[in-house]
From TrEMBL:
<feature type="domain" description="HTH lysR-type">
    <location>
        <begin position="1"/>
        <end position="58"/>
    </location>
</feature>
<dbReference type="Pfam" id="PF00126">
    <property type="entry name" value="HTH_1"/>
</dbReference>
<keyword id="KW-0238">DNA-binding</keyword>
<comment type="similarity">
    <text>Belongs to the LysR transcriptional regulatory family.</text>
</comment>
<dbReference type="GO" id="GO:0000976">
    <property type="term" value="F:transcription cis-regulatory region binding"/>
</dbReference>
<protein>
    <submittedName>
        <fullName>Transcriptional regulator</fullName>
    </submittedName>
</protein>
<dbReference type="InterPro" id="IPR036390">
    <property type="entry name" value="WH_DNA-bd_sf"/>
</dbReference>
<dbReference type="GO" id="GO:0003700">
    <property type="term" value="F:DNA-binding transcription factor activity"/>
</dbReference>
<dbReference type="Pfam" id="PF03466">
    <property type="entry name" value="LysR_substrate"/>
</dbReference>
<dbReference type="InterPro" id="IPR000847">
    <property type="entry name" value="LysR_HTH_N"/>
</dbReference>
<dbReference type="InterPro" id="IPR005119">
    <property type="entry name" value="LysR_subst-bd"/>
</dbReference>
<keyword id="KW-0805">Transcription regulation</keyword>
<dbReference type="InterPro" id="IPR036388">
    <property type="entry name" value="WH-like_DNA-bd_sf"/>
</dbReference>
<keyword id="KW-0804">Transcription</keyword>
Length: 287
């Protein structure tokens, strides 16, 4: 059975639309339709009920969904593992929310090297939505992210709660409206909503960045202010290079650990999870 046909099936299931599935997979809608038709012919039963506003799984489609997920994940795992050198026995794929390389990814790599030296590691740093997409497709084994989406095949656990504080290169109190030198760092959907509620009269920022490190480097070099992880900027505050903005609201951002509920290699997943939970414990103790 063709893997690309099953990818098409999973994408239509996730989006509820042949057209959206085509957009996600960068093919035409007719290609998606042909792939689904080929699956239905092979299985000798319909997988979707086509409606004017989308597509819904039939009973047969619901039964096939779990098997399609398993097949696609097994294929991706096999494709990666056959390329490994002989001294490595498996590979684990971790997704990490942007802005969390220093805090999570780098320590986890060190932990894996010390405790599982025969396991290859691959890390993708992205926003929550692309990470969820790759988890769903079996391209990631586990991920740390801000905004998880409930899915039957995935387990979601609270991970770390972070504090974002407003800092400035010069002492000042919080202001409304446009502030010269303010850099908007995009910490995800929830932060954008919190920020809008806290600063309702603030116009669109002149400078927006997706990476905290980029925003921090900019204000240290050119002056300015912005919201950053308290843990990241605390040493700079202690050195007097940065200052907390007086009376500014603080925002808490929970992160979540998301992983496959039915992994192909349960022992491998347990090892990777142990490393991430060890790092969380160290971070909480140092907070």
């Amino acid at each position: 059975m063709n893997i690309e046909h099953m990818r098409a099936f999973l994408e239509v299931t996730a989006t509820g639309s042949f057209q959206l599935a085509a957009d996600k997979l960068h093919v035409t809608q007719s290609t998606i339709s042909a792939r689904i038709k080929a699956l239905e012919d092979r299985l000798n039963r319909p997988l979707f009920v086509r409606k004017r506003n989308g597509a819904e799984l039939t009973a047969g489609g619901h039964h096939f969904h779990r098997h399609a997920l398993t097949a696609v994940r097994a294929w991706e795992r096999a494709r990666q593992e056959i390329a490994l050198p002989e001294d490595l026995k498996a590979i684990v794929n971790l997704g990490v929310q942007l802005n969390h390389w220093d805090r999570i990814a780098a320590p986890w790599l060190g932990w894996m090297q010390a405790h599982a030296p025969d396991i290859a590691t691959q890390i993708l740093s992205e926003y929550s939505e692309p990470l969820m997409h790759r988890l769903r497709d079996g391209l990631l084994d586990l991920a740390i992210l801000y905004d998880p989406q409930q899915r039957a095949e995935l387990t979601i656990e609270p991970y770390l709660t972070e504090k974002l504080i407003l800092i400035s290169t010069s002492p000042r109190v919080v202001e409304s409206g446009r502030v010269t030198g303010y850099v908007f760092v995009d910490w995800g959907d929830t932060f954008r909503a919190q920020h809008s509620l806290a600063f309702p009269e603030t116009p669109a920022p002149k400078l927006s960045v997706g990476l905290g490190a980029v925003g921090l480097e900019h204000i240290l070099k050119h002056g300015g202010s912005g919201y950053f992880l308290e843990e990241t900027v605390a040493p700079l505050i202690a050195q007097g290079r940065l200052h907390r903005v007086a009376n500014a609201p603080e925002f808490e951002r929970p992160t979540y650990l998301v992983y496959q509920s039915d992994p192909i290699d349960a022992d491998l997943q347990e090892t990777a999870l142990a490393g991430l939970k060890n790092i969380a414990g160290i971070v909480e103790e140092s907070a």
